[in-house]
Design brief:
The chain has a two-stranded antiparallel ribbon with strand order 1-2. It is built from 13 helices and two strands. By secondary structure, it is mainly α. Helix 3 packs across helix 8.
Length: about 250
């Protein structure tokens, strides 16, 4: 496969799309496999090419939003193909708008559940707090980037697959500013993985675990704690939740 230049959606096109998303919602629904309608925006000045290049690649279309196997495979491929780009590109919403419309439009739509105006605002327009962590495609990239274990020679993506298998394990973290810190995410997710694997049990207490970690941060500076420190704390708390003996 060849190389292609990346692009950004123009600010004018983004504003027009955002201001009229209630109207354009129908375009998404009627044109589930063809994104060419987006070129109507901003008098046709929709995307601006940039000098960085990525490999041409194709994604599989999930059969439903719950097709975690395909979504995981796609997400790992997206990470592998984009990870060389600078952080300022990967953190730019206009880059992700181009990528969604031009490189994975049908895939992104297939991953959506409800297709309401609010959903498009959050998952396509990347609005609100922590927008990139809730974008339908950008969140896939970041979930992989923050869980790939580069020190595991046999399987770098074991923790990634565990994360995508049940997104609730990771979702509560994404509301917190410290979820951008790989060291903290890895310590948290490794602890959850090891407890679930060792005990064969799982409990939906991830919102409480994240609150516990936030409370720890109010007593100790999380930036000063190592991945192992985070791991030990989360492991201990999770095991207590499993035994129902934790006192908050």
């Amino acid at each position: 496969m060849g190389k292609i230049n990346i692009a950004y959606m123009t600010e004018a096109a983004y504003k027009e799309l955002k201001q009229n998303i209630g109207t354009y919602r129908e375009n998404f629904i009627v044109n589930a496999s063809d994104s060419s309608w987006v070129h109507q925006l901003a008098d046709g000045k929709v995307f601006q090419s940039k000098s960085y290049q990525i490999d041409e690649f194709s994604l599989k279309i999930p059969f439903s939003p719950s097709d975690s196997k395909t979504i995981t495979e796609n997400s790992i491929l997206i990470y592998e193909k984009l990870k060389h780009l600078p952080a300022y590109v990967l953190s730019n919403k206009y880059f992700w708008l181009w990528f969604m419309f031009e490189r994975c439009y049908s895939v992104a739509l297939a991953m959506m559940g409800e297709k309401e105006v609010s959903t498009f605002n959050n998952q396509w327009l990347l609005g609100g707090r922590r927008g990139l962590f809730f974008g339908i495609i950008s969140r896939c990239y970041y979930r992989v980037a923050l869980t790939v274990d580069e020190n595991n020679d046999s399987d770098r993506y074991y923790l990634t697959r565990f994360t995508f298998e049940s997104p609730s394990r990771f979702r509560e973290l994404t509301w917190r500013t410290f979820s951008s810190e790989k060291r903290i995410v890895m310590g948290f997710m490794k602890a959850v993985y090891d407890v679930v694997t060792a005990t064969g049990r799982e409990k939906s207490c991830y919102d409480e675990l994240v609150k516990d970690l936030s409370r720890l941060g109010s007593v100790k500076i999380l930036d000063m704690m190592s991945e192992n420190d985070i791991y030990d704390f989360v492991s201990a708390r999770y095991n207590k939740y499993l035994s129902d003996t934790v006192s908050l």
